[in-house]
Amino acid sequence: MTPRPSSSASPRDGFTLLEVIIATAVAAIVLLVINTTFFTALRLHNTTQDRITEDRALQRTLGTVRRDLAGIMLPSSSGVFAGALQTTLASSLTQGTYGDKIGPDLYTNTGAINGWNPFSEVQLVDYYLAPAEDGSNTKNLVRAVTRNLLPAQVTTPELQTLLTRVADASIDFYDGTAWTDAWDSAASNTMPTAIRFQLTLAGPDGKAPANSVPVTLVVPVLVATTENLDATASTGGAP
């Protein structure tokens, strides 16, 4: 006797075309969301790292400038190990070999003493604004250091690029009542009571942003000449 086929429907062997299309669309949406989230987080991470790197470079630069200004020395009678603080000399060397000079020659005691450099801690430091090496319309803040102040022959200063993407920089002097951009310790026989260093960073277009506020560093000058002390005593203030 031949068995009769079952009347119940057999289970499906696969998915319908509509189910496949819906599953593909859902998977594409999920992948799109994951991709957008990943690249947004990656862009935020890169932006944060760039900002941290820029801030570190700026703080390192300000720390170097602060040490140089805080360690400024009194001019000596010979003018060899510690020359006069003269902006007139700086203005005559504005267009120098290394770029636009900022401020005067700084004789400072921030030199490191070790077994490889047989020099004292006294060194000559100059700051320049040099054209950027990447071809942009910005400048680099360059620090030129001369450690051997009694050379047997002409020496070349050691150049150190402290900061890139700089729009402008300047050094001013405080005479006790007001700020001035000129100083000549050889003529006045006095030292400023403070030195102000200002730095303007360049924007994405290579220029200083409109209404930008420069980064300002004010360092008191702790050394004083006899004229400084006499002037302070005459005003009744502490030296």
Task: Please write out the topology.
Elements: H1 17-70, H2 87-92, E1 100-108, E2 123-131, E3 139-146, E4 158-174, E5 179-180, H3 185-188, E6 194-201, E7 215-220, H4 226-235
Antiparallel strand pairs: 1-2, 2-3, 3-4, 4-5, 4-6, 6-7
Describe the structure.
It is elongated and about 105 Å long. The chain is α+β, with helices and mostly antiparallel strands and 239 residues long. Strands 1, 2, 3, 4, 5, 6 and 7 form a seven-stranded antiparallel beta sheet that branches. The termini are far apart. The chain contains four helices and seven strands; from the N terminus they run H-H-E-E-E-E-E-H-E-E-H. Mean pLDDT is 83; it is low at 235-239. Helices cover 31% and strands 25% of the residues.
Summary, kept brief:
The protein has about 240 residues and is α+β, with helices and mostly antiparallel strands. It has helices at about 15-70, 85-90, 185-190, 225-235; strands spanning about 100-110, 125-130, 140-145, 160-175, 180, 195-200, 215-220. It contains 4 helices and 7 strands, in the order ααβββββαββα.
Q: Which percent bin holds the helix content?
A: 25-40%
Radius of gyration: 33 Å
Element order: H for helix, E for strand: HHEEEEEHEEH
Class per helix and strand makeup: alpha+beta
Query: Count of helical segments?
Result: 4
Largest β sheet strand count, sense and barrel closure: 7 strands, antiparallel
Given as residue ranges, the uncertain stretches (5+ residues, pLDDT < 50) are: 235-239
Measured by DSSP, the beta-strand proportion falls in 15-25%
Shape: elongated
Mean of pLDDT: 83
Alpha-carbon distance between the two ends: 126 Å
Count of distinct strands: 7
